[in-house]
Design a protein that fits this description.
This protein is α/β, with parallel strands linked by helices. Helix content is 41%, strand content 18%. It contains 16 helices and 17 strands. The strands form 3 sheets. It has an 8-stranded mixed β-sheet, with helices on both faces. A hairpin with a 2-residue loop joins β12 and β13. The two termini are 25 Å apart.
Length: 458
């Protein structure tokens, strides 16, 4: 690109929604650079919109999105206006910025991008360097909620980690850490204790925190951080617990017991035992807000909100003939959860699974949960820049395979052709599953549900 062209683009107004998304995604090469200096400067130039909002801040390795979905659904049913900021998105860039369950309007996103663009260019010219795509997206969300929609609460999901994550620029009314496992180890630290310290970085002075972390050494990190910050920790298994009552496809019920009261029976339609944990975390979060912040959630709204909560791409049945289930299990804990759900919740004769991954993940620990349960394994590639080649994933599967694994391995790099194979193989009494990177899940979901291409991404 020559300098003249760069100067034309600099300072120019973005004319369409597509141009705005291209401009934001054009900042991806600046990567994810930990630290809050650029976002702090950007928000200062934009008038510090974050200071006018009430946040529920959610970190964790898995379960963040589902917990956001439960909280959003219950709060909306309780009559509150709710902003929900999540990532990555499944179908469209606007999915990340929701208000009362609806995406931001394209024109609004365009207007907010134009409002931020001169500030981004101003910061790019300093030693701080260009704000990243995620920093700009986060700033758009804050402007949207502070200047356009004015929600009562913003359900606010971290992007990566916690302490240095861009979303940590806010001071919430409550923090949530769903769980801690093996993901983004390249960025967050080589041990789970190091990852725990990063996630615990969202705990703020005097702000309560709710968590379902189970590993004793990681609980210690959370307890220590909470004590240092004079923050009250509500831990699953200590200050609250739940018990499974019944499990079937698309419906599971549990009892809840917290510090403030027991609840005999709650029902969710999301599948997998882990969703009861996520729902219990959401319920405890709201119980703390009821107790100390005068939040009003009656039991009917709680029950209905939990039951109606949906989260795309997580044990989501997108087709009934043949039965095709999507699940974005892309780390070891996610794969273990998927394998457990497939063995306990779903009935089928044969299980056919299609998988595509990104190259920076811990694949052998994912694969070991999948190999014992499948009849067919189709490896493919997400349509994304740092995809894991189908051939190298297949080599890894062959090296992990033992004589007891009797599945058929099919290598098909083109995800569309792989999906057709999966659909052909899945008989009336079988189950087809698409798993792995959310970029693959996004494409397959759009293809099956809308027969269209998705505009997926981070």
């Amino acid at each position: 690109m020559n300098d003249n062209h760069t100067q034309e683009v600099q300072g120019a107004q973005l004319r369409t929604y597509a141009e705005a998304v291209d401009w934001i995604n054009g900042l991806i090469p600046f990567g994810i650079r930990p630290g809050l200096e650029r976002i702090a400067k950007l928000l200062e130039l934009a008038g510090n919109p974050q200071r006018r909002l009430k946040f529920i801040h959610i970190a964790g390795t898995n379960g963040k999105g589902s917990t956001c979905a439960f909280l959003t659904s219950i709060l909306i049913k309780s009559g509150y206006d709710v902003g929900t900021f999540t990532s990555p998105y499944i179908t469209k860039f606007t999915n990340r910025f929701q208000y009362n369950g609806e995406d931001i309007e394209e024109e609004t996103l365009l207007a907010l991008a134009n409002e931020l663009k001169p500030f981004v260019e101003e910061i790019s010219a300093t030693e701080l360097g260009s704000p990243t795509m995620f920093e700009v997206a986060t700033s758009i969300a804050l402007l949207f909620y502070a200047k356009v929609k004015f929600p009562d609460y913003v359900v606010w999901e971290t992007g990566l980690g916690g302490r240095l994550d861009v979303t940590n620029i806010v001071t919430p009314v409550i923090s949530v850490i769903t769980n801690i496992g093996h993901d983004h180890m390249d960025r967050l630290g080589g041990t789970l204790t190091e990852v725990a310290k990063e996630k615990a970085g969202i705990i703020k002075a005097g702000v309560p925190v709710v968590s379902a972390v189970t590993q004793p050494e990681l609980i210690e990190v959370l307890k220590q951080t909470a004590a240092d910050k004079k923050s009250t920790l509500y831990l699953l298994g200590e200050q609250f617990k739940f018990g499974s009552l019944s499990v079937q496809e698309d419906e599971q019920s549990f009892s809840f017991e917290g510090l403030f009261r027991p609840i005999e029976k709650l029902t969710i339609s999301l599948n997998g035992a882990h969703q009861m944990t996520n729902a219990a975390v959401a319920v405890m979060t709201l119980e703390v807000l009821r107790q100390y912040y005068a939040l009003i959630v009656d039991d009917e709204a709680l029950e209905e909100g939990l039951r109606l909560a949906a989260w795309p791409g997580r044990l989501e049945m997108v087709s009934r003939t043949p039965r095709i289930l999507l699940d974005g299990a892309h780390n070891p804990e996610g794969a273990e959860t998927l394998a457990s759900a497939l063995q306990t919740t779903y009935r089928y004769d044969r299980l056919h699974l299609m998988m595509g991954m990104l190259e920076n993940k811990n694949h052998s620990d994912v694969i070991k949960h999948i190999l014992p349960i499948v009849d067919t394994l189709i490896v493919t590639e997400p349509d994304f820049r740092n995809k894991c080649e189908a051939g190298s994933l297949a080599d890894l599967i062959r090296s992990e395979r033992s004589e007891s694994h009797t599945f058929e391995l099919i290598v098909e790099p083109d995800w569309r052709a792989a999906l057709e194979k999966l659909q052909q193989l899945t008989g009336d009494d079988d189950l087809g599953v698409v798993s792995g990177s959310l970029y693959l899940i996004a494409d397959v979901r759009s293809r099956i549900l809308y027969n269209s291409e998705s505009e997926k991404g981070w």
